[in-house]
Amino acid sequence: MDTRQLMKGIMRALQERGADKAALWLSGSSSEEFNVVYQELNLLRSVESQSLNLGVIKDQRQANTSLNQFDEQSVQAAIDELMTAVESSNADPAFDISPKQAPQVFSDGPRQMDADKIVQRLDEFTTAMKQDFPDVFFDAFLSFNLNTSYYLNSNEVDFEQRTAYYAFSTKFTAKKDGKMSSFNYISFTLADLDKPLLEVNFLRELMRQISEQTTTSPIPKNFCGDIILAPYVGASLLYTLISQHFGSSGLLTDSSRFPEHIGKKVLDEKLSLYATPTDERLADKSFITDDGYLSKAAAIIEKGVLRHYPINLYTANKVGKPRTIGQLNQMVVEAGSTTLSDMIASVKEGVLCMRASFGSPNPNGDMSGVLKNSYYIKDGKLVYPISETMMSVNLVDVFNRIKNISSETMNLGSCIFPYIQIGDADISRK
Amino acid sequence: MKKMSLSSLLPAGAEYVELKQQENRSQGLNYLNGTLVQNSNSFSGGIMSRTFTNGVWGLASSADMSTASMQKVIKKAVSNAKLLSRSVNKGKLILPSTAAQGEYLFYSKKTPVSTAEKIEFLGALDKYIADKYPDLSTRRVFVQQQETEKYILTNDGGAMHTMTPKSVIGIVLMLNHQGESLIHYDIIGGFGQFEDNFSDPALCFPVIDKLYSELMDKKDAVFARAGTFDCVLDAKLAGILSHEAIGHTTEADFVLGGSIAGEYLDQPVASEILTLIDLAHSWDGKTCPVPVFIDDEGTEAKDCVIIQDGILKSYMHNKESAMLLGHELTGNARAYSYSDEPLIRMRNTMIVPGKDKLQDMIASIEDGYYLISSSNGQADATSEFMFGVGLGYEVKNGKIGKAIKETTISGVAFDLLKTVSMISDDMQWTGSGMCGKKQLISVGMGGPAIKCKVNMGGK
Fold first, then answer.
1. CATH code of the domain made up of B7-219
2. Nearest-Cα residue of chain A relative to residue B229
3. CATH superfamily of A3-212
4. Which of A366, A398, B208, B340 is deepest in the core (most CB within 10 A)?
């Protein structure tokens, strides 16, 4: 099937049916996923999928539908349903599609899967795990993913991107003498399989840590001190903060604490956060934004100052702000100059938080979370792995109380993030 | 869904093969402050074949639902298993079987409601909120409807055709109060199509009024005190605890992966007044939120009594885990989309109601909390859990006092269950839940309120 012809035919049909504006996304993906279950290769899963999303605006009313069967009957039914649905919507002048831009085609990532290399890397991983970490139970998968996307809209925007990458994920826990650790996990994407998996993103160190986390102790007493957030934790917290207070959800629901703060200092001056959709260091890139623009690199937070709201076209129109970079998908936090070991050495009393179990902060940023796979620090030394310990923090305060940012970073494929040391956090025991 | 003819395609002589045709259909309508910001439909269908050979699995799938495509997918699944068995070959293993056949199509028998009528319904809710509660800073009302239709054949005799619907309405209210943003929400509905669950917007108005009243309580909310207290966990929180902190640890793939529950079979893990079951499809003569009569491996689905009178009695299984542990099949293998492999998933997890009255349970607390709704929850293979509490109240001398600010409760679930001293005689299902273990899937969580000792986060 010629997908371009299909999309152009659908675009014509929508316009003939009265759509003032229309946008189409056609996505196709194939994936070969090799799964390690119960510590052995167990499942090879091949997935072929496709999806076509149709969005229309008529009399400033909006509706969309998606389908994955592209025969004439299914497409016609989708168009009929969509044009009926849009009549039932209510009008909002904020609905719009991206303006005319020059057509572009992008391609990134390996041309094809190296299946032998995948099996070799997983075999090597499982063998090394059993030899070096015999107390660790683990599952994992390593997949090759090929994605193609076409974006077409009635303002003559015509973009195409092909991306490919490997994805690895593992979940692990340790058990020794009837005692067990909390589980930990990590997921990342890679452009190649040049390195053994255990040597990527401190994975070997995470396995060493979990092996010793079968014996844990509570912190001696409640205290207010430092938390060193591992990259996985820090990235998750910062992404939550950005979404709630600088992104669409905070601005549309009038719950952002920073609704008119472009050019103002909002976070600690040590923090710089960049939207990096096509950064060469990342395996999982985005050349096209969800709202039909070419992706753009930019500083969102520069030395603590807000430079851009990462919002889509609808939100920008709705809240009366310019749409500049679109939503945040890939991000990089600038590394600092302090090593992790120097960070630990600088802590009088605190914790090294390698994982945290936490829910959504309330709209003001208040939150608490259970520290997992984490360590008590006293007088500059890691003392022991901790259990049943909770942090109570305000998310905005967390990123305004940065003491140090590490020189080491973790590259998760769509995000590069360092360790971050914050002060004045409330740490409590059961 | 137009059913394919799959029986003639089942390959002969294979150790174990599944063929599946599946469609997931969904609709989302979302009003934000009076604007319909989402008016969307989605359809995703396809086919899958999975085969088990020499102790490994091969799976292939395609969105192309034709006979030729299914033949190609079957071959690919076989070649995938062969490729893996070059690295891992365990010889011929026999998967257990309690195959069942049946058709369970839960289409509404009521007059279909059009998209325009659903929008009108939501609009009525939005208008009611806007007119009656103009002080709110944000209001959101939404409909989510999902339908999953599956047709599965297995070469050990399993055959099933199901259509399982779910429809919910969500209501979110926000208020700016003295520079602070307050939020409260609820989701109503569950199993069934929109027509089955929602007939008149006015029937939802009391839910909105109650939500608003509880949001107003939050204006004067106080911080919870950190520490361990006697608490009553209302049905929704007790249901999440059952699912997240106990249920997951007793899924047999977690047990094989090192879960702490692997150490506890036939041992006391809870108060002897507590029984916890993962129900297949019915309770007390009524259909559960996620009815499963036959699972995605063609296995007859049975209730799995996880804890009986405080003793850990069994785990939930798919074919492979039952084979590895030598246990009976329970019918817990389920997959989310056409391309997914079935995983061990809970269906309808509940604590069996007890004999106590909720008001007596609250009255029995001298200094503690009544915790009503959860904002989220996570648990560990150790059964250590953390749940956000969206709504809760102080209880002093047996009386409900001030609301508490959003907080977190945590602990080790198997320890907490040993402190359960009262269980209410009523029960409530939450049918809107989605569980995210590799694949998102609908789950039912339910039960009564329980009184126990809880570790509160706070100041």
1. 3.30.2290.10
2. A430
3. PmbA/TldD superfamily (3.30.2290.10)
4. A398
